[in-house]
Amino acid sequence: MAIGAAALVIGGYVALNAVAGLAMVIDKALAKLGAPRIPEASLLILATLGWFGAKCAQRRARHKTRKQPFARRLNAALIPHLLVWGLAILVIGQGGAGPGG
Asked: At what angle do helices 3-33 and 51-61 cross, to 10 degrees?
């Protein structure tokens, strides 16, 4: 994997985790204000791309920890999260070559 490609993957990973975590924190603030919230589906899509950020923010902000359907879905989002990023690393590690090299 080229250094530029590795930096791109790592930077993208960090950025998506930050966005996912920030979305959880913003949703918690909106909940406290009684304002319209970020849809759970949107939070879960972000968690698929930035699971660690979403999970850390959930714990830190104590947000949606007792809402079990969401908490289970957030934990389950780890599987596609790992698949998406594993595939990204694999593809970039092969120099961006698609199927058949």
From this structure: 30
Q: Let me know: does 63 contact 25? Beta carbons within 8 Å.
A: yes
- How far apart are the C-alpha atoms of 49 and 32, rounded to whole Å? 26
- Residue 101 falls inside a structural domain: no
Q: Measuring CA to CA, which residue among 16, 5, 19 is closest to residue 89? A: 5
Asked whether the beta carbons of 51 and 78 are under 8 A apart, the reply is: yes
Residue 2 DSSP code: -
Q: Which domain holds residue 19?
A: 3-93
Task: Please state the length of the chain.
Answer: 101
Contact between 85 and 12 (Cβ < 8 Å): no
Give the residue-averaged pLDDT of 60-81.
Answer: 82
Whether 25 maps to a domain, the answer reads yes
Residue 101: pLDDT over 60: no
